[in-house]
Amino acid sequence: MLHETLRQSFRVACAAAAFCTLIGTGCALFDIDADGVPTSIDNCPLMANASQEDSDGDGVGNVCDNCPDDPNEDQADPDADFIGSACDNCPDDFNPSQEDGDLDGFGAACDANDSNPIVH
Length: 120
Known about the structure:
Layout: H1 2-16, E1 20-23, E2 26-29
Antiparallel strand pairs: 1-2
């Protein structure tokens, strides 16, 4: 009887926690991407990244960070080119290739004179 009461307590505790499920007589943390890191603490919960590498320290794992070398906590990408605003050379213009013919740091998509590094 005591064992069943404890089991029921685990069921209630697991049901109350959105990140747990009942396994045998205890709770187990969910790991949606099956990388060995519980979803509740995974820095990229939908893509496997067991190392949890986060080069820029923004709390988003490199494998799902749209600017892995530049802090970009909100992962803003207003032009929807999969390059985050923090590292996009044309943050308001779609340019997934990040082409920059004159190497002035402004992408060809938003640089009216992409052959002259002085004129943008």
